[in-house]
Amino acid sequence: MSSKKRPLNTLCVHAGNLEDEKYGGATAPLYMSTAYDYRGEGTNLYPRYFNTPNQVALGEKIAALENCEAGLIFGSGMAAISAVFMAFLKTGDHVILQRAIYGGTSHFVDAEFTNLGIEFSFIEHINAASLEKHRKVNTKMVYIETPSNPLLEVVDMTVVSAFAKANSLTSVIDNTFASPINQNPADYGIDIILHSATKYLGGHSDICAGTVSCSQKHMNQIWKTAKNYGGSLSDQTVWLLERSIKTLGLRVKQQTKNAKKLARYFEDHPAIKRVNYPGLKSHPNHKIAKSQMRGYGGMMSFEFKKSVDHHRFLEELKVVKVALSLAGVESTILAPTQTSHSLLTPEQRKEQGISDRLLRFSVGIEEVKILANDIEQAIEKSRKIAK
Question: Residue 142: what are its φ and ψ, rounded to 5°?
C-alpha cells in the first residue's frame, strides 16, 4: 500500500492488537508474569526473549506502522541501537555513519567500536559520491538519521538504500524525529528502522523504550544478539507504550502543524540568526524532505543572535518547558551542548555546527498563539540584559 494512503490512525489503534478473549475488554490485557508453562507447542515464553504476549503484540504494531515484517521492543533507544550494531558488526568490519546523528550514538561508536576493533567513518554530507569515497572492502553497514538531531539535516534515503544494496551492505536509520506518521524508510529501501520510543511513540514523557523494525530475516539475526544483552522492556511499560501509540497519529499531526507555523515565525524574527526545519523552503534539503516525508515533524532548532541572552531566555519561559528529551505532548526546549550532545568534545560539536547558542525545540500540541506569545515575552526579557 502506498505510504501516502495508509490508514495510519487505524493502524495505531488496531494493528498488533492483543485481544481480551475472556472478558472482551476494549483495551489489551496486561500479562505481568515472568514465568510461563513451557509444555506443549510453541516457544518458551520469557521477557528477555522478547516473546511475552504483550511484547509480541506491540512488536506487530510497530512493524505495521513501519511497513515491515517484524518489530522488537527494547528498554531504551540505545538498547535498540547497540543491539543492531552488535548483531551485524564484528572486529575488523567497517561502518559508514552520518556525522550529524544523536550524540549518544556518536559516543557509543567512538567508545565501543574502538574497543572492539570495528572501523568507522563519519561523513559530513551523505550522497552517492561521499559514500563511495569512504567505502572499503570491509564495509558492512551504512547508518543514517534523517531528520537529524539537533540540526534537522535531511538525507536522501533512496540514495543510501541504492548504495547499500549495490554493495551488499546493511542500511540502518534512526527514524525518531520523523516518527512512522511522517516517514516510512522501508518504502525507500532502508533495511532496519530504529526509534527511541521514549520520544514520539511514547509521547507523554513518561516511558523509556526503543524499537527495531525490519524484515524477518534481519530480525532473526538481531534477536540472537538482543536476547544475550538483556535489553528487553517490562510488560507493564510495553502495555503503556501500546496505549500511547493509539494516539500517535493525532499527536504527531498536531505537533507537525504547530511546528510548521512556528518555524515560519522564527524565520522572520529579527532576534534569531537561523532556523533549522525541513518544512521551510530555505532549508538546504527541503526538496528531498518533500519527496520522502508526509509531514516535516514537530522538531526544529534555532540559534539566537548575540543580542539575546540565551541562558536568560530559557529562564523566562512560562509555558514551554526547559527539559531533557523531546516529543511529549508538552512543548520542551533545551541546549544540545548541555544535554543530547554534551558527551561530544567542543571540537566535535563545532565540526557539526552545534553552537552554545543553538536551542532544540520540541513543539507540543498547545495552541500556537500561546506558544508564540510565551517565546516572544521570553525574548523581550532576555534582550534587556543581553551584553
Answer: -125, 130
